[in-house]
Amino acid sequence: MSPETIRKMIQDEIPDSQVETSGADCNFTIIVTSPVFEGLKPLQRHRMVNDIFKAQFESGELHALSIKTQVSK
């Protein structure tokens, strides 16, 4: 899975999000910033992003994803 694919999948599901990615192969670190996260607890934000990749985790296409979320204003 490429960083560009990860970025596009997140931006398709979370409108107005800014996504930074680092890593390679099937282990990535991402920072997602979006106004959609306003009022959500950190765990809720994390689950929102993690759920986008449910199928990729199940298939093994994606092994590890470190997620940091931030609210943009």
Determine the N-to-C terminus distance. 30 Å
The name CATH uses for the topology is GMP Synthetase, Chain A, domain 3
The CATH superfamily title: BolA-like
The helix-and-strand class reads alpha+beta
Structural Rg: 11 Å
CATH secondary-structure class: Alpha Beta
Beta-strand percent range: 25-35%
CATH architecture: 2-Layer Sandwich
Mean pLDDT: 92
**Tally of individual domains:** 1
What shape does the CA trace take? globular
Which H/E pattern describes the elements? HEEHHE
Ranges where pLDDT stays below 50 over 5 or more residues in a row are: none
How many beta strands in the DSSP annotation?
3
Strand order of the largest sheet: 1-2-3
Helical residue percent? 25-40%
Major beta sheet, specifics?
3 strands, mixed
Q: If helices are DSSP runs of H or I spanning 4 or more residues, what is the number of helices?
A: 3
Descriptive notes:
The chain has 73 residues and is α+β, with helices and mostly antiparallel strands. The chain has a single domain (3-71), classed as BolA-like (GMP Synthetase, Chain A, domain 3), CATH 3.30.300.90. The chain is built from three helices and three strands; from the N terminus they run αββααβ. The chain has helices at 3-13, 42-52, 54-59, and strands at residues 18-24, 27-34, 64-71. Strands 1-2-3 form a three-stranded mixed β-sheet, covered by helices on one side. A hairpin with a 2-residue loop joins strand 1 (18-24) and strand 2. The longest helix is centred in the N-terminal third of the chain and has 11 residues, at 3-13. The model has no long low-confidence stretch (mean pLDDT 92).
